[in-house]
Amino acid sequence: MSTAYVVFTLLAAATSGYSAANHLIRPRWIIDNLTSYGVPLTWLPALGALKGAGVLGLLIGIGWGPIGVAASVGLILYYAGAMLVIARSGRWAHLPAPLPFLLLVAASLALRLASP
After folding, report:
1. pLDDT attached to residue 4
2. Domain of 42?
3. How distant, in Å, are the alpha carbons of 28, 41, 107 from that of 32?
4. Residues 11-33, buried b or exposed e (16+ Cβ, 10 A)?
5. pLDDT tens digit string along 53-90?
6. How far apart are CA 61 and CA 64, in angstroms?
7. Domain total in the chain
8. Is the dihedral of CA 56, 4, 95, 85 positive or negative?
9. Alpha carbon distance, N-terminus to C-terminus of the chain
10. Rounded to 10 degrees, what is the CA torsion of 5, 8, 10, 11?
């Protein structure tokens, strides 16, 4: 396992954890954004829990590869879905917002798969 993999995985877990926490504590800007995208606010706990499970999977995956791969794939699908929801809403200026999260998780996955 490479140092780069561990660093990118910890960064991906930290940023996704921050995002999950925001879904659970519901700051005003999250409420405003999700409302403008057409996402029901009743989904916030489930969305936060999904991201939280992905974060836990990333961290466990440092020691047990298959869990990390599954968590990475799940988070990549989550963030790609978020980009689709934003595009569907027509809020084009917000479209790049999930991209840094997605790229960190994708880098973690690529480094995991490249590790011997």
Report:
1. 93
2. 3-114
3. 6, 10, 30
4. bbbeebbebbeebeeeeeebeeb
5. 999 999 999 999 899 999 999 999 999 999 999 999 99
6. 5
7. 1
8. negative
9. 7
10. 180
Q: Which two tokens stand for residue 114?
A: 């490249």
Supply the pLDDT for residue 87.
97
**Two tokens, residue 72:** 């990475």
What percent of the chain has pLDDT above 90? 95
The predicted model scores a pTM of: 0.92
Q: Convert 6-69 into a string of H (helix), E (strand) and C (coil).
A: HHHHHHHHHHHHHHHHHHHHCCHHHHHHHHHHCCCHHHHHHHHHHHHHHHHHHHHHCCCHHHHH
Residue 98, pLDDT > 80, answer yes
Q: Please compute the mean of the pLDDT values over residues 92-103 and round it to a whole number.
A: 95
